Amino acid sequence: MKPLPILTALTLAGCNAPGVDFWGGTTSRQAAGGHSFSVTFVADRAEAYRTSPARRLSRAQVFESAARAMEQASGCTVPRDTLIGDVARIEAELIC
Hints:
Blueprint: H1 3-14, E1 26-32, E2 35-42, E3 45-50, H2 59-74, E4 84-85, E5 89-93
Antiparallel strand pairs: 1-2, 2-3, 3-5, 4-5
Protein backbone atom coordinates (compact mmCIF):
# COMPACT_ATOMS: atom_id res chain seq x y z
CA MET A 1 0.00 0.00 0.00
CA LYS A 2 1.32 3.41 -0.93
CA PRO A 3 1.72 5.85 1.97
CA LEU A 4 0.96 9.02 -0.04
CA PRO A 5 -2.84 8.48 -0.37
CA ILE A 6 -3.11 7.65 3.33
CA LEU A 7 -1.02 10.65 4.35
CA THR A 8 -3.07 12.93 2.08
CA ALA A 9 -6.36 11.67 3.53
CA LEU A 10 -5.15 12.16 7.11
CA THR A 11 -3.90 15.65 6.34
CA LEU A 12 -7.17 16.71 4.72
CA ALA A 13 -9.21 15.24 7.57
CA GLY A 14 -7.43 17.60 9.97
CA CYS A 15 -8.33 20.68 7.92
CA ASN A 16 -11.93 20.70 9.13
CA ALA A 17 -11.21 19.85 12.77
CA PRO A 18 -11.76 22.51 15.42
CA GLY A 19 -8.73 24.28 16.87
CA VAL A 20 -7.29 23.14 20.20
CA ASP A 21 -9.14 25.90 22.09
CA PHE A 22 -12.42 24.48 20.78
CA TRP A 23 -11.91 20.75 21.47
CA GLY A 24 -14.88 19.35 23.32
CA GLY A 25 -17.15 22.12 22.06
CA THR A 26 -20.45 21.84 20.24
CA THR A 27 -20.07 21.60 16.46
CA SER A 28 -22.73 22.01 13.78
CA ARG A 29 -23.03 22.78 10.09
CA GLN A 30 -24.58 26.13 9.25
CA ALA A 31 -25.37 28.05 6.06
CA ALA A 32 -25.39 31.84 5.91
CA GLY A 33 -24.86 34.42 3.20
CA GLY A 34 -24.42 31.82 0.50
CA HIS A 35 -21.60 30.06 2.36
CA SER A 36 -21.45 26.83 4.37
CA PHE A 37 -19.62 26.70 7.68
CA SER A 38 -18.61 24.20 10.31
CA VAL A 39 -19.15 26.13 13.55
CA THR A 40 -17.75 25.08 16.93
CA PHE A 41 -18.39 26.99 20.14
CA VAL A 42 -17.15 26.67 23.71
CA ALA A 43 -18.25 28.94 26.55
CA ASP A 44 -17.92 32.51 25.21
CA ARG A 45 -15.94 31.82 21.98
CA ALA A 46 -16.85 30.46 18.54
CA GLU A 47 -14.92 29.31 15.51
CA ALA A 48 -16.26 28.95 11.96
CA TYR A 49 -14.56 27.11 9.10
CA ARG A 50 -15.91 27.98 5.67
CA THR A 51 -16.56 24.64 3.96
CA SER A 52 -17.98 25.88 0.66
CA PRO A 53 -15.73 26.67 -2.30
CA ALA A 54 -15.69 30.24 -3.57
CA ARG A 55 -13.54 32.61 -5.60
CA ARG A 56 -12.56 36.21 -5.00
CA LEU A 57 -14.12 36.46 -1.61
CA SER A 58 -14.77 39.72 0.16
CA ARG A 59 -13.41 39.40 3.68
CA ALA A 60 -16.18 41.65 5.04
CA GLN A 61 -18.93 39.53 3.44
CA VAL A 62 -17.43 36.25 4.67
CA PHE A 63 -16.98 37.65 8.20
CA GLU A 64 -20.63 38.78 8.29
CA SER A 65 -21.78 35.38 7.00
CA ALA A 66 -19.60 33.60 9.57
CA ALA A 67 -20.99 35.79 12.38
CA ARG A 68 -24.55 34.89 11.36
CA ALA A 69 -23.60 31.19 11.21
CA MET A 70 -22.08 31.42 14.70
CA GLU A 71 -25.24 33.10 16.01
CA GLN A 72 -27.43 30.40 14.43
CA ALA A 73 -25.32 27.62 15.94
CA SER A 74 -24.95 29.06 19.44
CA GLY A 75 -28.08 31.15 19.94
CA CYS A 76 -25.80 33.95 21.17
CA THR A 77 -24.83 37.35 19.76
CA VAL A 78 -21.49 37.87 18.00
CA PRO A 79 -20.05 41.37 18.48
CA ARG A 80 -18.77 42.18 14.99
CA ASP A 81 -15.65 43.92 16.34
CA THR A 82 -14.44 40.61 17.83
CA LEU A 83 -14.21 38.76 14.49
CA ILE A 84 -10.66 37.71 13.61
CA GLY A 85 -9.16 35.37 11.04
CA ASP A 86 -9.30 35.07 7.28
CA VAL A 87 -11.84 34.00 4.64
CA ALA A 88 -11.44 30.32 5.57
CA ARG A 89 -11.36 30.34 9.41
CA ILE A 90 -12.95 32.95 11.63
CA GLU A 91 -13.05 33.26 15.43
CA ALA A 92 -15.21 35.54 17.56
CA GLU A 93 -16.52 36.16 21.05
CA LEU A 94 -20.06 35.24 22.01
CA ILE A 95 -22.44 37.21 24.24
CA CYS A 96 -25.10 34.90 25.65
